[in-house]
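To whoever is on call:

I kicked off a structure prediction for a single chain this morning and the downstream step that reads the tokens threw a length-mismatch warning. I double-checked the sequence; it's 443 residues and nothing unusual in it as far as I can see. Pasting both halves so you can look.
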Amino acid sequence: MEKCYRIVYQSFDKSDPEKVIEEKTLLEDALTIPTNCLDVSMGLENQIKLIQSAQDAILSGKFEGLYEGGCSCPKCQGKMVKDGTHTSTLHDVLTDHKVKIQRVKCKDCCYEPPSTIRTLLNTTQTGDLKKIQATLGANFTFRESEKVLELFSCGSRRVNNHDRVKQVTEAVGNKLGEINEAEKELIAAPEAEELIVNVDGGHIKTTEDKRSMEAMTSVVYDPKAVCTNSKDTRNYLSSKNCAASVKDDDQKQIISGTIIAALKQGLTEKTHVTALCDGAENCWNVVESLRPLCGSMTCILDWFHLAMKLENISLPEKLKSKLLRIKWHLWRGNIDKALTRLDELILEAKQEKHIERIKKFAIYINNNKDRIVNYEERKEAGLVFTSNLAESTVESLINRRCKGQQHMRWSREGLNPILQLRAAISSNNDWTKKWKDAVLNTL
């Protein structure tokens, strides 16, 4: 005896489940004993065939009753009569379908209601497919996204070409930005005693006249959300909210996004905000937008950026050695001593380019002296003093997607929707909650 299986589709009356209206076989095959990992399942191609057959049957059932039941004309109330059929294409995540839809026409005024997938739904793609295309487009290049979709669909599909992925990604990302702006008044989150805010920026090669443009990001989290992995070797955040923007709009979008992120994390008029930035004025502008909304604020020049800036100054070995000793004073918050040592180093330097580099760093310290703290004390007290925990925000939101290939050039209009998507994906449940609204609003 050769044992086989049969997968059957049935439609039935809900009031009488035993009454089968339609029945058809979707897939039949032999049940063979697996010999290796290649034949243990029904195989991806058969799985897609099964989904194809099941979807064809379900779609046929969904649309066959669209204009049945003696419907009347919505314009003149005249009688609607059948007028042939339309066959439309519908694209789902793994399959493409030809859907037959009944055409009807008013006998009196000749009005014809929509009878194609596009006119009925304003799109030929399902929401799930758009969600996946937008997610892939936010995380990979559009051509890479096309290849991933081809891999799982077992072949090339026109709906998954890189240009379509680009269109969907930009449309969904733009709508996501609008949804984020509109939700400010609706946010309700548990009150937070303290919040940490990191604001940073990254430069992206542009298609515009300038060599680069700056994309800004922010991440907001409650220090209680800092967790340690099972091996106690690395900290991570269990909850955070992010914002990003590359718009040339006087920082309106990044400021608004940062405020929304803070409100989602529990910002109130009693919350103490600890803000860490790299010292750039545009970053502090974003931070200052939170001051009227919180109880108190501590602004700290991020130790990670301060130390890196010091390390990256190119000087002869003797001068560099003395420069690095200044880090000892900065680590302990001794700003005046650090500035005195820098002045001495300027006098010792011989070449103009070395003098300029030291002066530039001295100006940086002087401009941010009110935000330089005793980092050693904060570390010993278990308080935040550096953005290293959130430093991956710039890497994950900007660099990983936008600088992966040297030939990449971006426009603000093309990059900003991707940043909105990546910020939502990186935030606590944002993308999960919003993707349906974002997809529907693109129609």
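Update from on-call: the warning came from a stale cache, not from the record. Cleared it. Sanity check on the structure: The longest helix spans residues 162-182.
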